[in-house]
Amino acid sequence: MGLGTHTESRDYLIAYNVLVPDSANESNYEVFLTDMEGSYHRNLTNHPDVAWTYEAYDDRILFNSDRDTCYRCYFLYEMDVQGKILQKVSDIQLQDSWMGVRKEGQELLVNPKHDSVFYLIDREGNLLERLDPGMKYINDPAFSPDGLQIVFRGSLRSKKEKRDRYMNVPHSERLEKEFIDELYIMSSDGSDVRQLTHYPIGDTTALWYNYHAGPPRWHPKEGYISYQSKQDGKSSLFGVQPDGSSMGRLTDLEGQEGWHDWSPDGRYLVIEVWDLDYERSDIILYDMQRKDHKVLTGDAYDLQQAPVFVVP
Fold first, then answer.
1. Least enclosed by CB within 10 Å: which of 68, 142, 220, 266?
2. pLDDT of 239 strictly over 60
3. Can you tell me the mean pLDDT for 135-139?
């Protein structure tokens, strides 16, 4: 479908992740950049590592990488929109997780590899605070636009317990409630932890590895939280208010909808959309005002994922 470009938004850029075929490395993920028209697709990382962006602030792109270390041992790096001025942010090994940013990029909320807590760090990688929601599994934190609240994915059981449980029950059996990942919210100091989402009782279409409540993204203007969830056999984007009030489905695209991000003005969504067999995924730009969309990525690659907006 056609998509009119909002004049105040036309300069936004979009960073996203691409699986680039490499005979020497089956997991050569690169960070690419495109514009609001999808008129070019630039490889920023060009490195035989697993590089994955989860966040950006202004023109700085944050990404996890296992370069110079063991396979999928992730550390945080940042670079500019030219793929230059690249530097390591922290020596803390990280989970494969989205992250939060506040105070104009001066503070980052990350998920360390060997601890079920969140670390608040500064731009130099110094640990400022350790936040413990008191749960066995936590992931994918996001700050509210004012930086005073944190939404995240959580479960009362660890990922290993969830996987082990799945291996011992029929695929059609719904996991007990304590195994299901839901969205939780807390104050920025780690207090007042509350559950936000409640996966529909009786829906068995999401298996243990599917998102019941996927990585949350906070709408920058209207204050609600978007997330992906596989319900009724389809992965779609849903909304929830910070008080837990459900907003239902936000979009209704033909494909499976997943990782996504909001433009700073709140008008646009960039969404990873894939086919049912997960043989191909593309980046879609969705206009929330016009309720139309366009495909930004081309046919050069099959897996193009997890887009984030960048402000040059």
1. 68
2. yes
3. 94
Tell me the C-alpha distance between 76 and 60, whole Å: 13
Q: Which residues pair with 41 in a beta bridge?
A: none
Q: How many residues does the chain have?
A: 312
- The 3-state DSSP class for residue 159 equals helix
What are the structure tokens assigned to 154, written together? 């959580």
What DSSP designation does 161 have?
Answer: H
| 26: DSSP letter | T
Residue 175 to residues 64, 156, 232: CA-CA distances in angstroms? Answer: 31, 12, 16
CA distance 29 to 12: 23
- State the pLDDT at residue 284: 97
154-195, pLDDT tens digit by residue?
A: 998 877 887 777 777 765 555 677 778 999 999 999 999 999
- Rounded to a whole number of angstroms, the distance between the first and last alpha carbons of the chain is 27
pLDDT in tens, 13-49: 999 999 998 766 678 999 999 999 999 999 999 999 9
What per-residue string of b and e applies to 276-294 under the rule 16 or more CB within 10 Å gives b?
Answer: eeeeebbbbbbbbeeeebb
Tokens linked to 158? 């660890």
Q: Phi first, then psi: give them for residue 130, nearest 5 degrees.
A: -115, 120
- For residues 143-152, give the mean pLDDT: 98
